[in-house]
Amino acid sequence: MLDLSYVREHQDEIRQMLKTRAPELNFDDFLRIDTDRRTYLKDLDSLRAEKNKANDQITQLLKEKKDPKPTIASMKSIAQKIDVLESKVGEINEKLNQILLIVPNKPHKSVKSGEDSSKNIQIRQSETPKKPDFELKNHIELGQNLGIFDLVRGSKIAGSAFVVYSGHGARLQRALVNFMLDTHTKDHGYQEFWPPALVNRASMTGTGQLPKFEEDMYRLRDDDLFLIPTAEVPLTNLHRDEVLKEEELPLKYTAYTPCFRREAGSYGKDTKGLVRVHQFDKVELVKFCKPEDSYEEHEKMLKDAEKVLELLKIPYRVMQLCSGDMGFAAAKCYDIEAWAPALGRWLEVSSVSNFEDFQARRANIRFKRKATGKSELVHTLNGSALALPRVVIAILENFQNADGSLLIPEVLRPYMGGLTILRKV
RNA sequence: GGAGAGAUGGCUGAGUGGCCGAAAGCGUCCGCCUCGAAAGCGGAUAACCCGCAAGGGUUCGGAGGUUCGAAUCCUCCUCUCUCCGCCA
Questions:
Q1: Is any atom of nucleic acid chain B found less than 7 Å from the CB of residue A374?
Q2: Based on the domain organization, do A47 and A124 belong to the same domain?
Q3: Span A154-176, pLDDT tens digits
Q4: Using alpha carbons only, what angle is made at residue A239 by residues A235 and A240, rounded to the nearest 5 degrees?
Q5: Does the C-beta of A202 come within 7 A of strand B?
Q6: Domain span holding position A156
């Protein structure tokens, strides 16, 4: 959510931003509603001041044992006027808030403007992926041959785009989760959490999934709960409606959770194998920090996420997203993409975003600044580190041998009971 | 699922119709003291909205209602705690 007075004072900038990021929004309507609201609010304030004065008079009269009847009568008529105006203001507030909640964040000045991913900028690349001297099998064939996951049965027990891992594949999930969590807690100083996978409407609104993207979420209608699409939601909402202490910032949190995405409207895209599934596992990083630190913390978080791929020795590149390719709530975003040689594609395995105060304003997350004694909104950041299925794809396709066996990345071996190579069953 | 109790500032907690934006304590900040600190003493300290300011307004879990007037009374909702039931 943007700051209303900022919007008011930077109309041209916001109008320009909405053109690319939310063309369906009628900005003039919005401004008109805002003006109306301010007019009514002023009237309401002065009426209330009158009422309060009358109220004091009544108190005084009662104390002096004089007759308060005439003052009570005039106060009654003021109260009626207030009632009318209050309901009007209530309606307007509702309208304004509804709009404000679907206005996307404005990109940071370092973000290039552009329509889609073609305008993204490559920041760096770990190494040039090397071409093997044998014919590569894709991850689906490898996975099936090695017996580590089963899409047909996933589809039988849940539906299409659900997967069941088995045997060494199941253990690989566990290994990846533990490896990633250990890396972030021991080497990068994040505090570990194990949050609920179901959250309420307020939480989903706080991080920006609602109200705009309700269609993309799995929802439990009877209880009005939502399956989390990412651990960002519960982790960020840990501090919803809280005032943090300046000296405890930045807070660095990490969690493994399953993630659930309906992927409504994306049928036909990436339908192959593990690239896009409805339920997947992910280790997430979340930070709360002071506004002046957020861009530095953003770069650090990116490095923390990259480190996982470095350790796994998976080729990757870092892209900076252009304005049109960024998510709704982000002010700046990097994607990390892992190389999948058999698919011949870079696969997004992480998205590292700085939301500035966009989520903090929605979720009311503040900190008390010592120098001023005032509370301010924090900046929130998050990044995947990493999403598992595409990492599995990258491992399978990069570490396969000519005979169809799979080399286990060195850092994972301790988590796989010392297993170094996975052979056909 | 049933019965009862509760929700007040950064935190704990008093307040049962007007003198309450709210006692007290903790915490925090400033000053005194000290070589410095601790302790002690004195003072300040909720958030938000409108306004250049003076000032005005809103907010006691949320939404309605009663009343001239609600933290306080009534209704509904949410959450927390205790007991019972069920259960991994």
A1: yes
A2: no
A3: 999 999 999 999 999 999 999 99
A4: 105
A5: no
A6: 117-422
